[in-house]
Every structure is written in C-alpha cells, then in structure tokens.
Amino acid sequence: MWKAWAERLAEQVKVLGCGDPDVISAIREIPRHRFIEVLREGAEEGDRRALEQAYGDFPFPIGFGQTVSQPSMVARMTHLLSVRSGIRVLEVGSGCGYQCAVLGRMGCVVTGVERIGRLVDWSRRVLGELGLSVEVVHGDGLDPSLGLGRFPRVLISAACSKEDVERAFGGLLSDPGILVAPVDVGGGMQRVLVVNLEGGERGERWEDLCRFVPLVGGLAKD
Ligand code: SAH
C-alpha cells in the first residue's frame, strides 16, 4: 500500500519543481512511514490513514521536539548536493534517518551524525531493516573531536548560523567539495546556502527560503 502513497509523493515533489530523476526514484522507493516511530508503533497493523500521513509533503514530528524534513525540501537539498553513486556524504542532524536513506538509495556512502541518542538507535534500526548501509554516529556533528575526517559532500539538516557553516567548511569539507546548509536569515526562517569548493576557490550561492529545527551544540541528555 505504501508504494502507491510514495509514488504519489514522488509525483508531487516533481510537480513542485524537482526535476532530478534519481532523487525522484529514491523518494518513490523509500517507505517514509517506517522512519516515523509514533506512526509505526501505533498503526503498523491497522490504521492505514495514520500511516498515509507520512506521505504528505510536510515535516512530521519524530519525537524529542524534532521533525523529519518536508519531502520536497529533502529532494531540493539532495539535488543541490549534486551527488552521484559512490560519493561519500556527511549529514549533520540525521534525525530519524530519512534523508540518509534517500542518499543511500542513490548509491552514496552516507555517514549521519545525530546528537539525540534515541534517534541514533532508531535510525540505525530502520536503515538496517531496509538494507541500507548508512553509518550513524552519535555526536555533535560540528565537534572536531569526533574525528570524522573530511567529506566531498556535507549536508547540514538543522538551522545554523554562518559561523556554523564556517566550522563545517573548515573541518569537514574536502576540496573539491559541496556543502549545503539552511542558514538563519532572521524571523525564524533560513535560506539554503550552497558552498562550492574547488582548487581552493570558494563559490557561494543562496537558494530557497526554508524552515528547519535549530542546530544545537553538544549531546542531548537522554
Ligand atoms: N534529516 C533528518 C531530520 C532533521 S531534524 C531526517 O531525515 O529525519 C534536525 C536534526 O538535527 C534533529 O534530529 C536534531 O536532534 C539534530 N541536531 C541538531 N543539532 C545537532 C548537532 N549539533 N549535531 C548533530 N545533530 C544535531
């Protein structure tokens, strides 16, 4: 049943402007309801209407005051990252793991970092069940002592400041590399910033307005 819902969601994301066929296929193939613990625990068996909510184009609460991002925004960020199969991607703020799953389905070698321990456990379980080889690290994604190394693609999935972007740029992005992040622009809104590094030359461009939950320093106390 979820396949028809995911198909409809993929079509909707396409109509909303994502013309990247690889991203659209990944959205079509990932069972988003399985990443949302509250829906799954309550309704796996019976309540189909509850599960169907996971396939609407809106953010959805995943507990701990966090949300899984809106599918059209996941698609947009994924497209802006310009990934290809085999490329290593770091996602800071991997939450329930849906964005990691989309990247993993596209063949990326994904590392997610998440500061809330229970979301780490949950996302590892769901990604494992789906057979996606995504590594999820428990930590503050911008803490250099994590020793994650550098990645050719870095996606920050929580609202951050320009200083946070500089920290990620300085410590996590390899050259050549692309970093995508929602950067606070005031009024509770962010704008997606794309930073392109090549041969030491840095290019920046600003894209869509968006709204993400905030990046927070340190580990969450479970
Ligand atoms: N991409 C996720 C949703 C992102 S919500 C998904 O597909 O579900 C943002 C997530 O960032 C939240 O789960 C939050 O706990 C996490 N987060 C916030 N600050 C962080 C930090 N400094 N390091 C790691 N994770 C962080």
TrEMBL record:
It holds the Pfam family PCMT. It is found in: Cytoplasm. One of its GO terms (molecular function) is protein-L-isoaspartate (D-aspartate) O-methyltransferase activity. CDD domains: AdoMet_MTases (cd02440). GO terms for biological process: methylation. The keyword Methyltransferase applies. Its EC number is 2.1.1.77. InterPro entries: PCMT, SAM-dependent_MTases_sf. The keyword Transferase applies. Keywords: Cytoplasm, Methyltransferase, S-adenosyl-L-methionine, Transferase. It comes from Thermanaerovibrio velox DSM 12556. This is Protein-L-isoaspartate O-methyltransferase.
